[in-house]
Amino acid sequence: MTDASLFMRFSGVLLDTWRKGLDRFATHSAPKPPEETDPELLYVRARGLARAGDYDTASRLFVRAGELAPTMAEALEAQGEILDIEGKPEQAMSKYEAVRKLRSQIRDSAPDRPFVLRQRRRFTAEIAAYTSVLHSIRRHTLPHIARGNAYLAEGRPKEALNDYNDILRWKPNHPDVMALKGEALAMLGEHDKALQAFDVAVAGRSKNPDILSGRAISRLAVGRLDQADADWRRQLELLPAEHASARGCVALRLADYEKALPEWERALEKEPHDPYWQLYRLTALHRLDRSAGPIQIDTIDVWPQPLLALHAAKLTADEVLACADTPERRAEALFQIGVLALPSDPAEARKRFNEVVEKAPPSMIEYAAARHELARLGS
Amino acid sequence: MFSVIIYGRNDSHGYNLHKRAAISFNAIAEVMSDPDDEILFVDYNTPDDHPTFPEAIQDTLTEKAKKVLRIFRVRPEQHVHLKARTHLVALEAQSRNVALRRSNPRNRWILYTNTDMLLVPRDEKQSLSDILGEIPDGFYQVPRFELPEMLWEAAFDRKDAVGNIAKLRDWSRRFHLNQVVHNFMPMRYDALGDFQAALREDMFAIHGFDEEMLLGWHCDSNLAARLALYRGSVDTLVDKVFGYHCDHTRVAAANNKGRQTKMNDQDRFIWDVSTPYLPDQAENWGWPEMEIEEIRLDRDTAFERFSAGISAALEPAAEPYRTTNLEWHLYNDLTYDLPHTLPFVCDQVLTYPRNSALMFVGTRPDFLSRFAVAWRAMGFTGPILVPRECEGLPLDTPGVEAGPFNDLLRRTDMFIFEFGVATQGINEPVRTGRILEAIDEKRLKGVERLFRQAAAREEETRPAHRRLSRRFIGVNVIYNRFWPLFTDYISANINPFCGQVLAGNPRIDPTMKGKVLRLRGRYAI
Q1: Judging by DSSP bridges, how do beta strands B471-475 and B414-418 pair with one another?
Q2: Are residues A92 and A116 in the same domain?
Q3: Which of A186, A287, B85, B361 is the most exposed place for a label (fewest CB within 10 A)?
């Protein structure tokens, strides 16, 4: 090998390292699909064009991004802004309305989980905006956390982890960041590493119920049921009384139906039409062998109404399972089938709970509740 | 549907504050349509002897604004524990949290803005309540549009909220007012603090504003950072409502010293925020245990209380006017017209907390009996404390508590020292050259002695709950021999003779004369 080729290879390595170093603050670019088929890249490009005043091209790209990703509310909103600037307020407002409709249709996830995981939607605009902030403000916590959280909420824990690790490089063991890192690792299924992060976070933020929730889930995932229960019980102590739905979720994870029932009743006073709170109230009533009274079912087309119909004996277990069109819904259905089978057919219940534990992610309420039911059944 | 939270104090924050604020209060009230809507104004640290800011401008507010306005008065005594940590006299985070804690729990939204904003729904048929009622949960901002000072000052009629909003719709295009200024996330727009709408539930969950922010500025950005983390995004209502700010930079406000302006640390409170929560203030943000007075402008107003007090204590005058005289040869005549003087005394106490304990030391029994009637009728619930050392006073008057002077000193929140003629009747002519009787001199000597002691020992005899000095009201202390005595000890303004009343707090005089005075006062016999 000649000196020149050695120099070229060395320069290449340096250049690559330098690029990666820069990229840590930008997009963490893994190989990307071509821009014209990637709604996120289209959105980012269109956003830049719009800020530069090229509204025509920007608008076209936003429309294309929206076509590729119909749930990308930010593309609609950006179209609305351009239409408004161009003096077409009626058309603009219809776009903004469409955004709000999209967002109002998305149900938040379990209220006992950390704030970052309660939001479930695309965060393309936020990722783009905080990436832009990171070009100017690098060694500060907020933009990394905000972008990391956006990745995490989108279900992209690897990218989130990169952002959290960036902060931890200059703020080692920062408890808030360690808690988020724990969640990202848990989402990757690396529960042992997650537990290490959660332990550091709990040491620094001992009264934060969100962190205990994450640690409990990871403890459960690695088979430490008693330790998980201790975290959930402490979480219950810390959650204020007015957070009834969150308290109900924790009690249900513990399969502590005596504790859960009054929480669901309080939650329903505040949100009387919430189908999950209705379902979980029925679950608690059934497990406590108390009458639920007549169950109102308006439709079985919208999940989780089939589960309410199951409690009302208007659908069979097989019919409900046929309606469950995602793994999470299937886990919810299996758990409810198990609950209903429990008094008369414990073996069937055990089978259903086992299926939940085998298939569902440990972060699901039904997973934890099924683990507790199985423990009581002596499995 | 929503609680608007704003704050301020009765001072001169920037140019023509009174007009800006009246325009803003009225305009905000105008876009409210839900019966639960409210404007919560925290009047922070206005001196006790002043009315709150909205009371001071109440005549310029519309009936609708008065109806929706709830004023929370944070007294100087409630602020004093923070005084050493800030150069500011009004604290944003504390104010906004006091209001949030006490906001209507039926309201879904909290809207943070300021007393110089007009909010204009883009659809004329919609109120802000309608708008907030329709939108999904989230954290919303709108861009702020600036309004040149001349426009709001010269063309707005304070009480014509509908007209002002209509003018803005016209001017926005005619004068090219609408410029959206984008900002770094999480501050979606510049000057974001003039419109941040958050769920009340979210604000409680994140423990309100950060009360460590004591130096002014960036409280809004800190909130944006924390709510952006909590909600995941910052949404806009630019399609629904425009916000106009009455520019007031002609004269810099107290917290604006150009490049020398002291500010909260941006890095700490914005760029290094790592969590929405504030665990260190989780239990005590907004001072939940502290009793904060609430004042309304649509009921039980200061005038109604004053009027009730005077009407209960005095009959209306039977003659067009009465006379007195301040010529020098009458310097030693200590008679004064009680019915004329009592309203000025009531005026001195009206703005104090209703549960105040007031010490009365004086000579005229008719003053005490009538003042006690007025005190109750003005809504005061605290006692009137009268030292047993004061002879000749009707101690059995309802509301009066008698006791040893030294004991009562430690319970007193403010003082009235009255230097009159014990033997004077209420209908006697005044300042006609009356000679004092021996009993009058004896009683006056007693009042003088207690006054010297009270003023000299004020600091060491304060009740446990007080850190600020107490107010002394002197009755009949102008242009007579008690004028120098009173003003030697009390830092009072020069007041017109006609009122017969001076008031102020004990003087802090570090000179030899001051020290001698305090020594004399302490051992006054």
Answers
A1: parallel
A2: no
A3: B85
Q: What is the number of domains present in chain B? A: 2
Give B78-134 pLDDT, tens digit per residue: 999 999 999 999 999 999 999 999 999 999 999 999 999 999 999 999 999 999 999
Nearest to A115 among B233, B236, B276 (CB): B276
The answer to whether residues A133 and A81 belong to one domain is no
CATH label of the domain that carries residue A229: 1.25.40.10
The nearest alpha carbon in chain B to A239 belongs to B205
Those residues whose C-beta lies under 8 Å from the C-beta of residue A17, and which sit 6 or more positions away, are: none
- Partner residue facing A92 (CB), from B182, B229, B239: B239
What ipTM was predicted for this assembly?
0.88
Helix axes A141-153, A175-187, angle to 10 degrees: 20
Angle between the N-to-C axes of helices A327-341 and A365-376, in degrees from 0 to 180, rounded to the nearest 10: 30
Which chain A residues contact residue B227 at CB under 8 A? Answer: none
Residues of B in CB contact (< 8 Å) with A are: 122, 134-136, 138, 182, 184-186, 204-205, 225, 228-233, 236, 238-240, 267, 270-277, 279, 282
Asked if A122 has any chain B CB less than 8 Å from its own CB, the reply is no
Reported residue count of chain B is 525
pLDDT of residue B5: 98
Number of domains in chain A: 2
Rg of chain B's alpha carbons, rounded to an integer? 27
B contacts of A129 (beta carbons < 8 Å): 185
Nearest-CA distance A80 → chain B (Å): 8
* Selected residue of B142, B176, B185, B229 to mutate for chain A interface (largest A Cβ count, 10 A): B185
Closest CB to B239 among A93, A125, A142: A93
Q: Examine residue A138 and state whether it is found in any structural domain, yes or no.
A: yes
B6-57 pLDDT tens trace: 999 998 777 889 999 999 999 999 999 999 999 999 999 999 999 999 999 9
Last residue of a domain, one of A238, A268, A290: A238
Give the C-alpha distances (Å, rounded to integers) separating B429 from A142, B180, B334, B498. 76, 70, 12, 15
The residue range of the domain holding A77 is 32-104
Domain harbouring B217, CATH code: 3.90.550.10
Q: Are residues B338 and B371 in the same domain?
A: yes
Residue at A47 is within a domain: yes
Return the residue of A nearest to B228 by Cα: A146
Whole-prediction pTM value? 0.92
Inter-chain touch A143–B136, beta carbons under 8 Å: no
Name the phi and psi angles at B92, rounded to 5. Answer: -70, -50
Q: Are residues A222 and A122 in the same domain?
A: yes
Asked whether the beta carbons of residue B279 and residue A92 sit closer than 8 angstroms, the reply is no
For chain B, say whether A266 makes contact (Cβ under 8 Å).
Answer: no
* Residue B316 and residue B279 in one domain: no
Q: Are residues B287 and B305 in the same domain?
A: no
Cβ–Cβ below 8 Å for A145 and B122 = no
Residues A60 and A124 in one domain: no
Q: What domain range is B479 assigned to? A: 300-522
Note whether A126 contacts B233, CB cutoff 8 Å: yes
Of B182, B229, B282, the CB nearest to A146: B229
Mutation site, A83, A115, A133, interface B, largest B CB count within 10 A:
A115
Say if residue A193 is in the same domain as residue A234: yes
Element (DSSP H or E) covering residue B18: helix B17-30
Query: What angle (nearest 5°) sits at the alpha carbon of residue B109, between those of residues B107 and B111?
Result: 125
* CB-based contact, A208 to chain B, within 8 Å: yes
A96 touches chain B (CB under 8 A): yes
Q: Between A81, A146, A243, which is nearest B228 by CB?
A: A146
Do B98 and B195 sit in the same domain of this protein?
Answer: yes
Element (H, E) at B118: strand B117-121
Query: Of A179, A205, A238, which marks where a domain is finished?
Result: A238
Closest C-alpha among A122, A14, A129 to residue A73: A122
The domain that holds B335 is classified in CATH as: 3.40.50
**pLDDT for residue A367 is more than 80:** yes
The DSSP code sequence of B279-309 is GGGTTTTT-TTS--EEEESSSS-HHHHHHHH
Residues B279 and B306 in one domain: no
